[in-house]
Every structure is written in structure tokens, then in C-alpha cells.
Backbone:
């Protein structure tokens, strides 16, 4: 009986990573800035995105959104009220979106062809664990945290916070009654993801939205430039 | 949370790889899992038996090597972190944002028995 070792050195999520890389190339070729929004359930991703879509459209930007949930198309209907093209992805039990689901939902999407868009937002399934492992080809992963959740969320879910490119604190309008310790929250985010851009926002009052929209515009402009310079 | 699908993906990859070795039986599968990979090793082991049943991996062992987070500190170079609760350089105390290791989720190698390479 002989045994031997065979070196494989293969990523377990290689299939997803390859699909995500292909998506990233498509986004870049189309000149669309793609963002993946992740948070716990109830953080306010949809409310934040509703406001973002509305404000961007008011500024003349071409936007669209894909939204993931286990069931219902409630979020898609809310987001569609902004006038932007929106598609719901129902995962039927799967705890995250993956690159294959995104690719599938980009097919035959009239009015939201990638080349016709400036921004594509992907609202992930509410979950701070599994979505961190699945690259969707996005340029920017945005992690959201609400003032009702506790300032130690970044410490409890370090993988997600560490893999994010920007952080958004939501529901700042109720920070005070919630006894939200702003300094502590900022410190914890920075401890897990040093130097990350943090936006303190309220979708209800519009606080912090200007700064957020400014950031989006900068990133979109940077993307254009990257496209022009081979 | 999705450990079963991760195991299923490992089974697929290994099955494909051993197809090149006629009659081979997989003895052990060795993984490299970073501290930031969000994978629970106990859960992988829990579904291993069921997921490998009736495949070339049936009866095989799973060996997981956990990799610590390694950050690049501007002053001290590559430094290994103890845990994932703070991304400060353990030597100088500065925060470092430049991750060099910790997100790995890969099959390193497999040990097989009685296989003859046909390819």
C-alpha cells in the first residue's frame, strides 16, 4: 500500500472568486461603480439606500439596485419608489449573496444595462458573518452599523468590519436616546479596520448624506479616470 | 453558517483532483484556514462524515491548519497578531491596515492511498 501527498493549493471558494473577478472586469469595462452593502438585519440598509438612490437621482446620476433577502420583495418595492431600476434576489434560505446570483440577475435587465449606469448598489442579506466570504466583484464593500446595536459590533464581527472599505453609522437621529457612545463606536471600528472612512448618517433627517454622496462622487470619478488611463 | 456548502465544495474539488489517480482513496484532506475566514472548524468536522459518504473521500480525515492574522506594520514589517480583536502592531502599538495573511480558505494538499497517476 502506497500513500502520497498531492499538493492542491486551491481556494475553496475559487468558483465564486473566479465569477466575481469576471464581474469586476465587466463593471470596470462598463464604468459603473459597484457597492456591496452589508450589515445585521434591522440596521437600516434599505432606508439608507432609499435615501441614497433618491439623492443620486436628483443629482442626475444613473443608479440601480439589487437587493437580497431570504423571502419577500418588500425591499425591492421600497427601493423602486425612488424611480431607480431595482431587482429583488430571493435566496430562499441562503444566508448571503454570491457572485453567481448577481450574474444571473444582471441578465436582460432592461433600463439597467451596466454601461448605462453610474452606480450599482447591491444590498446584501442582513447577516454580519457569511457575506464577508463572498466577493461579488464590488469595488467598495460598505458595512453599516446602527446606533441601536451596541458599539462593540466591530469587535464581535471582526471579519466583516475588517473586510470593509467604508463604514456607515445609521440612525444617528436617535443616538442620544439610545445612549450611543459615539467615541467608543468610532474607536472600535478603527481598531478592527484602521483608517477606514466612516460616515455618520440619518436616512430620516439626511444628516451625513452630503459627505456620503461626496465620497460616492469621488469614487465614481476615480473609477472613470482609472478607465481612461490604461 | 454555510459550512456544509464549504464542505461540499471541498468534496467536489478533491473528487476532481483524485480522478487523475486511478482507484485512489483519500486518507486525509489538509486545509489552510485564516483566522479571519469566518469558518468554524468544528462545524466543518461535524458535516465531514455525511458530506463525504459515498465519495472518494469517504472515511478520510480532515486536518485544518489555522493561520494567524499577519499585518504589515510601516515601522516593524510583517507582524503576527494574537487574535482578531485589535489590529495594532504587537511590537510598537501602531494600528496597521495592511493585511498580509488571515483570509485564507484553501485546500493545501491531500494524502491519497494506492492511486496510480493516469494523467
Residues:
Amino acid at each position: 500500500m502506497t500513500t502520497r501527498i498531492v499538493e492542491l493549493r486551491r481556494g475553496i471558494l475559487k468558483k465564486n472568486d473566479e465569477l466575481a473577478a469576471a464581474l469586476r472586469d465587466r463593471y470596470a469595462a462598463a464604468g459603473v461603480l459597484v457597492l456591496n452593502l452589508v450589515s445585521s438585519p434591522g440596521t437600516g440598509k434599505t432606508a439608507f439606500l432609499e435615501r441614497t438612490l433618491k439623492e443620486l437621482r436628483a443629482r442626475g446620476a444613473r443608479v440601480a439596485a439589487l437587493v437580497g433577502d431570504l423571502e419577500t420583495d418588500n425591499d425591492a418595492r421600497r427601493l423602486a419608489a425612488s424611480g431607480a431600476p431595482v431587482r429583488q434576489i430571493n435566496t430562499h434560505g441562503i444566508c448571503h449573496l454570491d457572485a453567481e446570483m448577481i450574474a444571473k440577475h444582471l441578465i436582460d435587465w432592461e433600463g439597467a444595462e451596466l454601461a448605462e449606469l453610474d452606480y450599482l448598489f447591491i444590498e446584501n442579506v442582513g447577516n454580519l458573518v457569511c457575506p464577508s466570504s463572498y466577493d461579488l466583484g464590488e469595488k467598495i464593500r460598505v458595512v453599516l452599523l446602527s446606533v441601536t446595536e451596541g458599539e462593540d459590533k466591530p469587535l464581535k464581527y471582526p471579519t466583516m468590519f475588517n473586510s470593509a472599505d467604508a463604514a456607515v453609522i445609521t440612525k444617528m437621529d436617535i443616538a442620544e436616546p439610545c445612549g450611543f457612545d459615539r467615541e467608543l463606536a468610532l474607536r472600535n471600528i478603527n481598531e478592527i479596520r484602521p483608517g477606514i472612512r466612516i460616515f455618520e448618517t440619518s436616512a430620516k433627517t439626511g444628516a451625513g448624506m452630503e459627505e456620503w454622496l461626496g465620497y460616492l462622487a469621488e469614487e465614481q470619478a476615480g473609477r472613470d479616470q482609472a478607465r481612461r488611463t490604461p | 453558517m454555510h459550512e456544509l456548502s464549504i464542505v461540499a465544495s471541498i468534496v467536489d474539488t478533491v473528487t476532481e483532483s483524485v480522478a487523475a489517480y486511478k482507484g485512489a482513496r483519500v486518507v486525509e484532506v489538509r486545509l489552510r484556514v485564516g483566522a479571519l475566514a469566518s469558518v468554524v472548524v468544528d462545524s466543518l468536522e461535524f458535516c465531514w462524515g455525511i458530506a463525504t459518504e459515498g465519495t472518494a473521500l469517504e472515511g478520510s480525515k480532515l486536518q485544518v491548519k489555522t493561520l494567524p492574522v499577519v499585518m504589515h506594520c510601516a515601522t516593524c514589517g510583517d507582524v503576527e497578531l494574537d487574535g482578531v480583536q485589535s489590529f495594532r502592531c504587537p511590537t510598537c502599538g501602531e494600528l496597521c491596515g495592511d493585511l498580509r495573511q488571515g483570509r485564507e480558505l484553501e485546500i493545501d494538499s491531500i494524502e491519497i492511498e494506492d492511486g496510480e497517476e493516469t494523467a
User: Anything to note?
Assistant: The two ends of chain B are 37 Å apart (CA to CA). The helical segments of chain B are 3-18, 41-52.
